[in-house]
Write a structure and sequence with these properties.
The protein has 413 residues and is of the alpha/beta class. The chain is built from 13 helices and 19 strands. Helices cover 38% and strands 29% of the residues. Strand 13 and strand 14 form a beta hairpin.
């Protein structure tokens, strides 16, 4: 393996921060974190570009820092996609098995997947992922890998993830302007799941909830496959704004107070605990009970989880979550979030930390790095060097690379 091919880069361009993670593929096939870079995000709101130049500058700063810590030059990266414009739905494709002896081939599987994704999309939307869930051969359901089996009719259930073409292109354009080629675009929840979910959780049924700065993205897995994705338009920034208004303090100070002293469950805060809060207009800082801060944060935390539960129930998956819920993303680090989620969902809750990697693990051992680390792991598992070679071919090449990775993932997974 050439030296350059040993390195994989994950780039998470979020509302509050831009994170670049460099992973090095070791001789034994494992992945070590070799470099980390992050910068405050400017010009990105809820997964959408609102100021191109500011976004490019943020990406450059994160990339420069990652290059410095890893000691390499970065020219390609895997990019996470998120935001309210991303939507997923389930689809089914049916084909007749073509072979003389009715033996199912990879070509039959490819045709079935093509049939499943041949759906009419609204103008301006494009397919980001087509993820097989399970197959049906004649009337036999729940088949994982049908190649080599015999039958006359093959059906496949897939989860199709779509996004607004212009929103995706704008984020990709920002990365390109920062001097980086996008090897592939990956759904944020899919990337985070690579880093924080166990195979047992995926099999039994679990909801991954990624609480970001502008939105809360979630995904539901069962029987090892992705069955539902969704977005709730409330994130960490809303908590910060609530503090700024409620405590009459500047937004940057509200963010600091939230990170240092915030707790989403008021009953966890002692009566005698106090915090110092900056005032606006040059007035002197004030000392106030920490409980007041929690009483501002708790209603917002309850709102996030109630909205999530409504979405899960509306989709009909509330009885599938036998492994409970895994919270990740920067918002999951707020004290009391797991406890309040447990009260609302009445399910096992845990925070998701990146696992399965070596190297600079101490520096990425936080839910905030789940997506960026997961991008590196996803790239490694889906043959990143091949995707990188196809990156310059345009949209068709990207889709071909994605499908090739999907088949490798499916038949080797």
């Amino acid at each position: 393996m050439a030296r350059k091919e040993r390195y994989l880069v994950g780039l998470d361009v979020g509302t509050s921060k831009v994170t670049a993670i460099v992973g090095e593929v070791m001789d034994d096939g494992s992945v070590d974190i070799a470099g980390i870079g992050f910068a405050d995000s400017r010009g990105i709101k809820r997964g959408l570009v609102v100021n191109l130049e500011a976004a490019v500058d943020s990406i450059k700063r994160a990339i420069d820092e990652a290059e410095l810590t890893a000691g390499i030059e970065i020219d390609t990266a895997h990019l996470a996609l998120s935001g309210a414009h991303v939507k997923g739905f389930n689809s089914r494709g049916v084909v007749a098995v073509a072979g003389k002896n009715r033996e199912i081939t990879r070509e039959d599987v490819r045709r079935a997947i093509d049939a499943a994704k041949a759906v009419a999309l609204p103008s301006g939307r494009e397919i980001l992922h087509v993820l097989p869930q399970d197959f049906v051969v004649d009337d036999q359901e729940g088949i994982g890998a049908p190649v080599g089996m015999t039958g006359s009719r093959l059906e496949v259930n897939v989860h199709v993830v779509t996004g607004t073409a212009s929103s995706t292109q704008n984020v990709v354009a920002c990365v390109n302007r920062a001097g980086i080629e996008v090897a592939d675009t990956v759904l944020e929840q899919l990337a985070a799941a690579e880093a924080v979910l166990t195979p047992d959780e995926r099999e039994l049924g679990v909801a991954l909830v990624d609480i970001g700065g502008g939105t809360t993205d979630f995904a539901i897995f069962e029987r090892g496959s992705l069955w539902h994705t969704g977005v709730v338009s409330v994130g960490g920034e809303h908590f910060t704004n609530d503090i700024a208004v409620g405590l009459r303090t500047p937004v940057p100070d509200a963010e600091r107070v939230k990170r240092r002293s915030g707790c989403a469950l008021a009953s966890m805060v002692g009566e005698d605990e106090v915090i110092e809060v900056a005032s606006v207009g040059g007035r002197k800082p004030r000392i106030m009970p920490r409980r007041i801060l929690s009483e501002i944060l708790q209603p917002r935390a309850e709102e996030v989880f109630h909205l999530l539960w409504d979405e899960i129930q509306r989709a009909g998956y509330e009885k599938m979550l036998h492994s409970g819920i895994v919270l990740t993303g920067g918002g999951a680090m707020l004290e009391g979030m797991a406890e309040i989620a447990e009260q609302i969902f009445d399910l096992p809750i845990r925070r998701g930390y990146p696992t399965g990697i070596g190297g600079l693990t101490d520096h990425v051992n936080s839910p905030a790095f789940a997506t960026a680390v997961g991008l590196v792991m996803y790239a490694h598992r889906n043959g990143a060097s091949e995707a990188a070679r196809l990156a310059g071919v345009g949209a068709l090449g990207r889709v071909a690379g994605r499908l090739r990775g999907l088949f490798r993932e499916f038949f080797q997974g």
